[in-house]
Amino acid sequence: MKLIDGKETSKVIRREIAEEVKQILKDGGKRPHLAAVLVGHDGGSESYVKGKMRACEEVGFKSSLIRYEVNVTEEELLSKVRELNEDPDIDGFIVQLPLPKHISEQKVIETIDPRKDVDGFHPQNVGRMAIGLPSFVSATPQGILELLKRYEIETEGRHCVIVGRSNIVGRPLSILMSQKGYPGNATVTVCHSRTPNIEEVCRQADILIAAIGSPGFVKEDMVKKGAIVIDVGTTRMPSTKTKSGWKLRGDVDFDNVAPKTSYITPVPGGVGPMTITSLIINTLKAAKKEIYN
Length: 293
Known about the structure:
- There is one protein chain.
- The protein has helices at about 5-25, 45-60, 75-85, 105-110, 125-130, 140-150, 170-180, 200-205, 255, 270-285; strands at about 1-5, 35-40, 60-70, 90-95, 160-165, 185-190, 205-210, 230, 235-240, 245-250, 265.
- The protein is α/β, with parallel strands linked by helices.
- It has two domains: about 30-115, Rossmann fold (3-Layer(aba) Sandwich); about 140-270, Rossmann fold (3-Layer(aba) Sandwich), CATH 3.40.50.720.
- The strands form three sheets. Strands 1-11-8-7-5-6 form a six-stranded parallel beta sheet. Strands 3-2-4 form a three-stranded parallel beta sheet, with helices on both faces. Strands 9-10 form a two-stranded antiparallel sheet.
- Helix 1 (about 5-25) packs parallel to helix 10.
- The longest helix has 21 residues, at about 5-25.
């Protein structure tokens, strides 16, 4: 069993990006600039955004945080999105989800300029990704592909089973893993809460990706010997052993599943760190006008 270390891989990628930023500035280019819009004071969102801002600093990007209270109106938020679309200094920006109930997340996503949509949520980017055109790919799927690449894990002809069909992880991953090229060329099965015999389907997987948001869902008897297991789950569970009073738990029963696998990602320290790094990768692509000229 080999551990797929997202934390270490993430550090390596950030060092590479930092070097590239130095070169851009040396050549007289503009410092890449990422902005984040945060509404309210949700604990998870606060820490995610803090991590994103810290990552920008680490690689030499400029970053801006725009905050609103939870009672901000939809129109006020959309107006800020349009303003960021027009700001020539900002290469990419994100509106941190989830948003309060009175604001339509879809409306906000669709108002973002696809050229600055570094979260990869705009229908134009999702559509381009689906037909294999250059696009901003959402952070978690991109992070997973990057880990498979960096660990040189063979995907061609493999049976990849994805547990979870969300628009942010499961669905885009199913498309990316089945596309031509590497990492891709896999045969993909998508399972979800309505899949009968889900255990049986998971046991057929050469590559099993768990993204269902149910702690410890994937048990030892659901994994075949030698499988590659990618755990996307990050559920906060109460814990008396940590200072914060909670700890992150993945969708995989790690202690019992790990010995059966050839590769596995831990939680924390697996897919998580790669998600923020993917956002940095996308911001650099936006700054270099790699996707949309």
